[in-house]
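[RESIDUES AND BACKBONE]
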Amino acid sequence: MTIRLRGHHLLCLLTYVGKGYSTAFVANYDRLAQRLSGGEPVELVAGPDDICAPLLAPACEAPHCLNDSVIARDSAALEDISETLGRPLAVGDRLKLDSATLASLRAAFRVGRIRRACVDCQWHSLCTGVAISGYAGVRVNII
């Protein structure tokens, strides 16, 4: 199978430590983190992805994942990540995350090179703390 991810979620997975918008969101993200850690490939998508799924449930009102600001985050993240990885990334591309790629992205994230998409994000301070800690407790780890 393939995990569908929007651009900025490539950044979010770097610091994911089990916190999220709701219990359902965290449970879903934990399952995806396990799959990513197992080496499952990623397909880049436009708009809501597999991480967003619990926010799109009928009971959720006005999910932020449809906002223009989030779409702009996706674009900024893909640009920054493309530069860091030395190859262009675009919607429709498939990507296999490995330990070297994660280490490279985490190093760039820690020093702020790939954080344009994080400006004004409500999770900014949490993610900064995770990066400063050396990524202690992150749930996506590929060996």
In short: Residues 37 and 65 are 24 Å apart (CA to CA). The first helix runs from residue 9 to 15. The beta strands are 3-5, 42-44, 94-95.
